[in-house]
Every structure is written in structure tokens, then in C-alpha cells.
Design brief:
By secondary structure, the protein is of the alpha+beta class. It has one domain: Defensin A-like (2-Layer Sandwich). It has 4 helices and 10 strands. Helix 2 (57-68) packs across helix 3 and helix 2 (57-68) runs antiparallel to helix 4. The longest helix has 16 residues, at 89-104. It is globular. The mean pLDDT is 89.
């Protein structure tokens, strides 16, 4: 959920009216740049943003690239990730919101306090806030991202 310059980590639209809502972070800084004749779209405050959503920088970049159907990369020394192509900022933000809603929010309490783990070839989420454990749904809309998580998530439940 996006309001003004803030990303609310919730699927409930009413949270934007709650001035004391805890799970919010500044919007990512997204810029476009021409590198050797190719336009790239950059997210510049990568470490800060990924800390805010509690996600590995490389996995985050790959997930958004998967949603955009493009190649990507992470430049750790300069603290940015990029996607090859000229993408509207709103498309990047929509992809980030999809990722958060689909994988980073608890299905029971809607809090972003989850730990993703895998058992065999199934991803599960365990909520640190309410204790709920459930398998993550794999469907045609999130299959590529689901596969990225399967490759990068540690096995533990």
C-alpha cells in the first residue's frame, strides 16, 4: 500500500490513516540511467530498502526482474540494483507491492513479521507476530518468484 512517499507493509487500505502504524518504510529511490547505450532502471537505496522489508538484496532484485521479465544485477559497493530496460516507476512499485503482498505478509494477521522456510519443494511462512504457520501458495501469477525463493531459502521449519 503506497501513500505519499511511504510504503505501508500491509494489504489493508485503512493503515494509511493510522498515524502510529509501525510497518512502513520510505519509498525506494528509483532512477533511470543510460549505460553504454542501454537504459537501465536503478533502485538506489538498496540496502536500506531491503533492510526495511527484511529481504536479501540479491533475491529482491531477482524477484522484481522476474516480475518485469528482464535481466538484473546488484552493485553492492555503490548500493543499488538495476533492471535492464526503461520501466515506469509505477510498474516497479506495483511489482514491489505484489512481492510484499504475495510473500512477505502473514496470511493470518497481515503483518510483515514472517520467516520463509522450505520443506522438500514447498515454501512455508511462519509469523513471528502471531505464530501462524502455513504453506505459501504457488500459482501462475507468482510461480517465477516462488522458484527464486525455493533456490535461496534455507531449509528449516
Amino acid at each position: 500500500m503506497i501513500h505519499n512517499s511511504t510504503l505501508f507493509l500491509s494489504s489493508d487500505e485503512n493503515t494509511i490513516f493510522d498515524t502510529s502504524y509501525r510497518y512502513k518504510i520510505p519509498l525506494p529511490s528509483i532512477k533511470k540511467e543510460n549505460k553504454k547505450g542501454t537504459i537501465i532502471t536503478k533502485l538506489e537505496n538498496l540496502d536500506k530498502f531491503c533492510r526495511g522489508i527484511e529481504m536479501d538484496e540479491n533475491v529482491f532484485c531477482k524477484c522484481i526482474a522476474s516480475k518485469l521479465s528482464c535481466s538484473s544485477g546488484v552493485n553492492s559497493p555503490e548500493n543499488y540494483c538495476f533492471w535492464k530496460g526503461d520501466y515506469p516507476i509505477q510498474e516497479i512499485l506495483d511489482s514491489i507491492c505484489f512481492l510484499i503482498r504475495s510473500f512477505l505478509l502473514c496470511v493470518q494477521c497481515d503483518k510483515p513479521e514472517i520467516i520463509i522456510s522450505k520443506k522438500k519443494q514447498t515454501l512455508h511462512q511462519r509469523c513471528k507476530a502471531c505464530g501462524h504457520i502455513s504453506p505459501l501458495q504457488n500459482n501462475s501469477k507468482n510461480d517465477k518468484i516462488y522458484q527464486i525463493f525455493l533456490k535461496h531459502v534455507q531449509t528449516k521449519i
